[in-house]
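In response to the reviewer comment on reproducibility (Comment 2.3), we provide here a single inverse folding case reported in full, input and output, so that an independent group could reproduce the run without further information from us. The structure tokens appear first.
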């Protein structure tokens, strides 16, 4: 067997066995939430019912935006849990003066 065939066969076997990254977003709130998933060249919107979760494939870094107020970079088997409240407080600079 040639080295090329061996390498191609090994790569194909690894591709079948290697787990695909599946990111999970859990909705721990009493209402539904909407998240955006940014794959770089495409985007997807998901609505997650109260107490439910959604999984999506993310082989490379993906961006997830949601009710927490900013984007997270995720990959692999990351899990994000949201209670529907923002993790970011925006301050009005004019009021602070």
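Designed residues, in position order:
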């Amino acid at each position: 067997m040639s080295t090329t065939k061996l390498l191609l066969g090994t790569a194909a076997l690894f591709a079948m066995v290697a787990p695909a990254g599946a990111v999970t977003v859990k909705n721990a709130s009493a209402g539904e939430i909407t998240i955006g998933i940014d794959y770089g060249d495409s985007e997807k919107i998901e609505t997650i019912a109260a107490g439910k979760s959604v999984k999506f494939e993310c082989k490379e870094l993906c961006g997830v935006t949601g009710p927490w107020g900013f984007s997270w970079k995720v990959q692999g088997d990351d899990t994000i849990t949201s209670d529907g409240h923002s993790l970011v407080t925006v301050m009005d600079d004019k009021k602070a003066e």
